Amino acid sequence: MRILLAEDEKDLNRVIEKKLKSEGYSVDACYNGEDAWHCLEMAEYAAVILDIMMPGRDGYEVLELMRKRGIQTPVIFLTAKDTIEDKVTGLDLGANDYLVKPFSFRELMARLRVMTRISSGNQTNRYEAGDLVMDTGAHKVTREGREIRLTAREYALLEVLLCNKNKVMTRDQIENSLWNFDYEGGTNVIDVYIRYLRKKIDEPFGEKLIHTVRGTGYVLRDPK
């Protein structure tokens, strides 16, 4: 899933970006509110991590503009401002969560998982399609009870397909969900990773889940 990170402390920004990428997320990182808003105008994100005290537009302004423009992407604030009034202001503007610095990276990852599963309409960390199960909390994929080992990119692709199961996704939509602005590979790379994924979650089993929609893209269909 693609995450926008806006944090003006450069060292902390780099550490968070590295941690997110190690968890399989694609990250667009910036250091001020103006760049954050520019990213939001250009791309869709699974979640946004916003610092409050940033140069240019602060986090409150970015969030307020998002909601006014109808962008309902879940937002978590990272901030040193820990008074009740600060939290109320952020939540009233439409923030989904609030994490005070210094914080645990494990807690940040857990809160991100909660936000993204709620926004996708899922009530747990589990995504299922027939006998295929993805547990995002344990970072584990099984089919017919057998664990399937996936690379970080394969895992991210499967997560996108499961979150949008039964919905046809274009190559551009998949690419936009998986890669940041620095990516220059082209949509044919999606076909390559779909082929890798099919070899692991479809070919060894009796029922095919990933289907090609000619001229459009791909869909993961729930056989239920």
From TrEMBL:
GO terms under cellular component: cytosol; protein-DNA complex
CDD domains: trans_reg_C
Residue spans binding DNA: 124-222
InterPro entries named among the record's database cross-references: CheY-like_superfamily (IPR011006), OmpR/PhoB-type_DNA-bd (IPR001867), Sig_transdc_resp-reg_receiver (IPR001789), WalR-like (IPR039420), WH-like_DNA-bd_sf (IPR036388)
Domain Response regulatory: 2-116
GO molecular function: phosphorelay response regulator activity; transcription cis-regulatory region binding
Domain OmpR/PhoB-type stretches: 124-222
Keywords: DNA-binding, Phosphoprotein, Transcription, Transcription regulation, Two-component regulatory system
BP-aspect Gene Ontology terms: regulation of DNA-templated transcription
Residues the record lists as 4-aspartylphosphate modifications: D51
Gene3D superfamilies: 3.40.50.2300, 6.10.250.690, Winged helix-like DNA-binding domain superfamily/Winged helix DNA-binding domain (1.10.10.10)
Superkingdom: Bacteria
Function recorded in the entry: May play the central regulatory role in sporulation. It may be an element of the effector pathway responsible for the activation of sporulation genes in response to nutritional stress. Spo0A may act in concert with spo0H (a sigma factor) to control the expression of some genes that are critical to the sporulation process.
Name of this chain's protein: Stage 0 sporulation protein A homolog
